[in-house]
Amino acid sequence: xxxxxxxxxxxxxxxxxxxxxxxxxxxxxxxxxxxAIAGSPNPTQPSTRKLRSKVENETAPSTSRKIRSAPNAxxxxxxxxxxxxxxxxxxxxxxxPVGRPTSKFLQVHPDKSYRQSCVLxxxxxxxxxxxxxxxxLEIPESYGxxxxxxxxxxxxxxxxxxxxxNVNRSDTTWYRSALKAIGMCMGxxxxxxxxxxxxxxxxxxxxxxxxxxxxxxxxPFGDMLLSAFDSRMIEDLDHPQLRKARGCxxxxx
Length: 253
Prior knowledge:
Layout: H1 28-39, H2 48-59, H3 73-83, E1 105-108, E2 115-123, E3 130-133, E4 148-157, E5 162-168, H4 173-184, E6 190-195, E7 200-204, H5 221-229, E8 233-234, H6 240-245
Parallel strand pairs: 3-8
Antiparallel strand pairs: 1-4, 1-6, 2-3, 2-4, 4-5, 6-7
């Protein structure tokens, strides 16, 4: 949703182009000759069957013993999609994404037990993935690693996906606006959109009512954090992220 276009009622200013072609005038003699060619073979032109075979041979992909084309693959895929039905029963989420959803309506868990303050985090500058950093770990300044102190909140999107909203602490308008947005999202559905310039978050309510979220299936917040960060926990100086930061290029990426 574009906040600048909300409620303005602006429409297209250029005339749409019709998706048609101009046929022009048909020459009866030319049409007759074309019909004759279509009806009987012309010795000066290759047959349709030969042309089709030539095109198929030129555009066919290279074959592989391991990766092969399946006959009627498109029809098989369509039939599989048609026959698919969603599994029956309660959905169990296996992990929790870290970050604020940018294109969905969300709510923040109102219970204080589902938030944690002053957590050390590190963001990979190449992938933007957020890593948890052990508070007992002292990272030398020579590593050039910039850590953040973040507050973590449990949230849910309108499609039922639970996530961890990490908010980096700072003396900025972004941080103060984020705290206000989090408070307004406790018990209310909003789409949260950042707006550069004033560096604030704009909140957009849904046009139609959304059912209240079901928090009953959530594990304790500590278990959510362990699942969310999982393999992204920096607990010693030999972690691949810290090795990459100090110039060790033997890290598998």
